[in-house]
Amino acid sequence: MLNTYVVYVENKPGVLTRVASLFRRRAFNIDSLTVGRTEKPEVSRMTITAEADHDQDAASRPLCINWSTYYWWRTLPTSLRSCATWR
Amino acid sequence: MPEKTMPVKNMTGASILWECLEREGVQVVFGYPGGAILPAYDALKGSKIHHILVRHEQGATHMADGFARASGKVGVAVATSGPGATNMVTGIATAMLDSSPIVCITGQVGSKLIGSDAFQETDITGVTLPITKHNYLVTHASEVARTVREAFYVARSGRPGPVLIDITKDAQQTTCEFDWEAAKPQLPGYRPDLSPELKEYEQALELIHNSKRPVILAGHGIIISGAMAEVREFAEKAGIPVALTLLGLGAFPASHPLNLGMMGMHGEAWVNHTIQEADLLLAFGMRFDDRVTGNLKTYAANAKKIHIEIDPAEINKNVKVDVPLVGDLREVLHELLPKVETIDRSEWLDSIDKLKGDAAVRDIQNLPDSGHLYAAHVINDLWRETRDGETVVVTDVGQHQMWEAQYYKHEKARSLITSGGLGTMGFALPAAIGAKVARPEAEVWVVVGDGGFQMTLCELATIVQEKLKVNIAIINNGFLGMVRQWQEFFYERNYAATPLLNPDFAKLGEAYGIRSMTVTERSQVVPAVQAARQHDGPVLINFRVEQEDTVYPMVAAGASLHEMIRRPSKIVETAEDE
Fold first, then answer.
1. Which range of residues forms the domain containing residue A67?
2. I want to staple B318 with a disulfide (CB 3.0 to 4.6 A). Which of B11, B288, B310, B474 is the partner?
3. Does position A87 have pLDDT exceeding 50, yes or no?
4. Which residues, in sequence order, are CB contacts of B172 under 8 Å at separation 6+?
5. Residue of B19, B58, B169, B427 with catalytic role
6. How does pLDDT run across B248-268, given as a tens digit for each residue?
7. Residues in chain B within 8 Å Cβ distance of A61
8. What does DSSP assign to residue B549?
9. Over the stretch B181-207, which tens digit does the pLDDT of each residue have?
């Protein structure tokens, strides 16, 4: 079962590695990852699709990435944020 | 700083570093010099900060961690590049898993040499990516001020954690203008100050008022948030009993009638039974760690759960909760306290009391004196002697850690410092040094096993060099106790690599210049503790305890929380029962 994540990050070196590393820590396999510029030059948008770990009941357990390390994550309105993250 | 400070021209990166640390309230750092951090050490003479020289960088990180846990302030450790930085990895991971605010500063080779496999170069920022809350690589002197300010902000805000700052040698040596005011943290996406919605509060209150068998699960978050008084008021007002995690010990007074004691793998039996029979769990600043839940499929199956937690990532991570309240515990409780009603729960509390009766028969304190010296006796005697003052007990990891949790009753927060999440052996001695430095007026006791002691015993020299009064109680059983216990239960007593051939610890202590003694009899314990307290320098006591002793009760890995292995009493012959 694939979940899609849309993450707004700072357009700086090392950021891609950090975000990808968050997935690795929780043993979630990244199916596809793309990153590109947005209309703001200092912000990039990453779109990641990932499959949850097979042992976990993906339907009942939301993906547990450590949000507290998402320092560059733009403050999206709450409704959009929940769309972007939990699905 | 009350006034706006003017920018200063021509300060080296190194001087800016120390100046920023001072402005963040740092008075002590723990460190070990080396080539890549030498410019910083040279600039120390211009600073009021006191530097404590350690004997191993792992010790420096544990000292910073112990400092942070004892005081609530951010602890700082300093080391050089390469091996100095990699020696900090264990300490950083320890702080990460227990949400401890520390800032680790490492030197790095010159920025032009990065990536060339230079002498003592490691990509420490890459290595510590998964074990730091955040880390930084500073390559220009102009970045130092903002990085340090940001690092401290990140370390102490929201859910605290370790932050690493890697500063290249040229960033330390070159000069630039230092403008404190302009160096504000810039973290647009970091929102540590979330609050629950009104309807979530209402849902929580509804659950609390409708529950017949509620239990509060009290964790480390209470101490971090400083919400001890609020939790006590809440528990008393709502009449709800309180179970504690290992790191929550002290958050709720042990002597309080509503206190159940520690829960989990080595928690007392009645606590675990209570949780399994509860119909509402209120998780205050705890994260449903596997040591506390046992088998998740059968954990508190009949209970609804309310989770008050500052880190949204913890919600539903291990256990699915019914009402998450994401925010600072103290503020959330302030909102709930006026609205929670007092309900008579004496029936529930009476049934819990009945469960306690069973355990008294099996408690080691109630077993007849067999002439053996048990670790539990040592710890209980230590508790009786030190309970009146401001005592901080720092434990290492293993059987003694569990006995300490069971037999030393903690009344105040920050009176127990122990490595819970990572379970790092060798944590105790350096962490106690950090705790003593943070709280010089407290009486600090190290309770450590013979295995863990040998991992970081070089820091005995730090104690002597800094003239610190730290009392060390070595629970010496000649074994890697906890591992031996698992081998006894699950690997048919195949004691592979667990017997330890130890040196004479008393002689070792004397060699370091510490007054030391060995205790082998039960009757010698109290006089030794009293002598240690009266001596005005550090003391090391080598307690030679029973070799094959077991921590009871025990929830085996994969077992449900209520399926505990209990201490065989004289009446019941079998070792296992439900």
1. 2-86
2. B288
3. no
4. B12, B13, B14, B17, B37, B39, B40, B43, B107, B141
5. B169
6. 999 999 999 999 999 999 999
7. 316, 320
8. -
9. 999 998 877 888 899 999 999 999 999
